[in-house]
Design brief:
Largest sheet: 2 strands, antiparallel
Strand order of the largest sheet: 1-3
Helix content: 40-55%
Oligomer: single chain
Number of helices: 22
Number of strands: 6
Shape: globular
CATH class: Mainly Alpha
Radius of gyration: 22 Å
CATH topology: Serine Threonine Protein Phosphatase 5, Tetratricopeptide repeat
Amino acid sequence: MKPSNIYPRLQICLERIFYYYRKPTQYGNSRDEHIKYFLFPIKKKLRISPIFSSILLLSISSCTKLIDIDPPLTNTTVENAFKTDATAVAVVTSIYTKLSAGTFGSGELRSTSALLGLSADELKLYENASNQTYIDYYQNSLNSSSVTADFWSNCYQMIYLTNSAIEGLSTSNSLSGSVKQQLLGEVKFVRAFCYFYLVNLYGDLPLVLSTDFSRNSNLPRTPKTEIWKQIIDDLIQAKDLLSRDYLDASLLNISNERIRPTKWAAIALLARAYLYTKEWTNAEIQSSELIENSGLFQLVELQNVFLANSMEAVWQLQPVYINSTEEARFFKIPETGPGPDWPVSLSIHLLKQFTSTDGRRNQWIDSLIIDNVTIYYPTKYKSVATAEPTIEYTMVLRLSEQLLIRAEARAQLDKLDDAASDLNRIHLRSNPEPIQVENKQDLIDKILKERQIELFTEWGHRWLDLKRSGTIDQVMQKITPEKGGIWNSNWQWYPISATELSRNTKLVQNQGY
């Protein structure tokens, strides 16, 4: 953004928001509350439509190099937001701003790394933690009344934005062909990304594909199989629409920034979707297409994996508030030890999975001693500095996961030697000796273990792997009592909040709540 070019009232708004970044005020303790407070007079003055005001809010809250195009600030409707390339790009870019800006514990998709890690056996919660949301996820004791960090409502807000963009882009006749195609691919990809998490966290759910509120507010839950079909259809379309190259904010130039989805991001998520739906052949085909593009994607040294624009990155999110990732700020415990702002550490169950010679144990985990107790915490992201330059981006999709996807698909297809080879490409990066396997089941078990220690604290992989592998009851019956809770198999699906149930009388709560 360029504040000097913005309507004066908006400039005042921005200055006050920037002041909030330094010091919270009486207008609320969260950035969103503060921004909304100062956005209201602008919305009233400019008569901005409800949809576009949400888009403007997201754009304002970024104010970083993620977007170099000023968002439209006149009496704008969703229709004319898609009249020019610049405004259309700004609208879609605001969606990534929302993805990037979500804080851990808020129910935004970004917080899957923390909350799903607490639900599983990855993280240990600080014994004096007072945040009830963290306690509920940790003890597997969520209920319809206590859901304050709600993935359901946050994901559907994102889906509403993508549906609005799809409708606006599809009816626009004034955009450049290449820009329109890229943006359509991007929003279909993001919609699939949101539904991927919804279907894995809640099971059957309403399939919302438009912005028709009267219709959407009364949709019943659609079977999981239909949700998966929509996810795969969106990703197949996105794969065809998206550029093979990473593009800059204008979508006109090739960039080295890996922060906009490409064809390869669609392929990566499509391979994962096929793995989850047990379409092994398709999972192998998709992951192979990406893996074989060695000119663009390569495994890198452990200390470089999570750097901005790493060669291992398929898609990353850029920090938007300050110049370090939410992961670094949340997981990296200071010398003073755990507390309300740093409430989690790594569980002993995860630590036991690493051998003493595993390089990931040294590069991605650190420790400190408090009152003669050693506390271990993840350091995949190391920088908590707020000064330029930003050196790390949040990793969303990466090459190593694709190798593990292909390994598992090949094992299921009885291509055991090829599967073991893929597994060892990951394993040997951080270990001196290859993994030896005895049979098909042993190989599959070792692939799942490798996923546990390679992908820990990344987007809830462990929790989702326990569910799809059918091992969640076996693991959580032991783990949940240790965390102070009681395990019930129904609780592998999160509850729909009472608020959402009251809004849509056709919704049915998940069993057990």
